Amino acid sequence: MASKAMWPGRWVLRALALVGLAAMLLSGAHAQESAAEAGAGEGARLWRSGDHDAAQRLWEESLANGTDLPDRERARLAYNVGVAHHTAGEPLVAAAWFESALRLAPRWEAAKANRDLSRADAGLDPKDTGIVAGFVRLFTRGEAEWLALLGGVLILVLGALDAFRGGAWGRGPWLAILALPVLWAPLVGQLASSNGEVAMVVVKGGAPLYGSPDLQGERLGKLKEGDETLVLDRLPGWVKVVDRGEERWAPEDSVLSLIR
Predict the structure, then answer these.
(1) What is the DSSP string of 127-185?
(2) Max Cα separation, the chain?
(3) Which of 26, 27, 33, 63 gives 70 a disulfide partner, CB atoms 3.0 to 4.6 angstroms apart?
(4) Global pTM?
(5) CA 249, CA 246: separation in Å to the nearest integer?
């Protein structure tokens, strides 16, 4: 009987070990973030001095080269670039950069407010993601993975306790199963939508579409300004995108990637 009494405790210890591991990872991320302040800080200094173009270039370069930066730091850089474009009178491009920031920091209210303001200044309707998609996008990819892991641990712990107590916890596992759709929905939704690069049309009048990467080729419609599309491929000066299920080519400078 003594060995059985220890069994559920092992699951609890494993769950606590996962919590400890999470704390270690988070502390490491904060240390890395502290070391990454320099790029954004120098850009801010240039901005305050009035050299907005240099500040914008520095922020974009820091973002392009800093693939190992924490998401929050990358979101701040994208946000700063958005501010620069809006200040320069380019609200459509600014809206795309604020959207990029939100994909890295989904609950950042300042980025959301400025995205909506830029969209309005560009003559676009407010962005409506729907209830389910809106919930999925409340979390970063890392947060979604931790929620899914929490759901799995919850099932295992409650299942072990239920088995140990001979069914006395009867409703516990079922309650956990009912919670799984909520805990797993963010990760499932993000995995379903992560099969390519997403870009936004950032030119007035929309992005012209061609059957081949050739300006003299056949025109096959256009994507409206503010539309989001999936990027399948790139060639110098061109991107292959999806329009209503069909593959088309658009000039590269007509869209801006939202993945940073």
Answers:
(1) P---HHHHHHTTS-HHHHHHHHHHHHHHHHHHHHHHHHTTTTTTHHHHHHHHHHHHHHH
(2) 82
(3) 33
(4) 0.71
(5) 10
- Local structure of 94: helix, strand or coil: helix
**Cα separation of 152 and 185, whole Å?**
13
Q: Is 257 helix (H, G, I), strand (E, B) or coil?
A: strand
Tell me the pLDDT of the chain (260 aa) as tens digits.
Answer: 444 443 444 444 444 444 444 444 444 444 444 344 576 788 889 999 999 999 999 999 888 888 788 888 899 999 999 999 999 999 999 999 999 999 899 889 999 999 999 999 999 988 766 665 666 566 777 777 777 777 777 777 766 666 666 555 555 556 666 666 777 766 666 665 556 688 999 999 999 999 999 999 999 999 999 999 999 999 999 999 999 889 999 999 999 999 87
Are 148 and 187 spatial neighbours (Cβ–Cβ below 8 Å)? yes
Q: DSSP string spanning 195-245?
A: SSEEEEE-STT-EEEESSS-TTS-EEEEEPTT-EEEEEEEETTEEEEEETT
CA distances for 159 relative to 99, 115, 145, 226, angstroms: 41, 45, 21, 48
The type of residue at 3 is S
Tokens of 148: 């899914």
Both tokens of residue 197?
Answer: 């690069």
Q: What is the DSSP letter of 259?
A: -
Which strands sit side by side in the sheet containing 246-251, from one edge to the other? Answer: 219-223, 207-210, 246-251, 238-243, 228-235, 197-201, 255-257
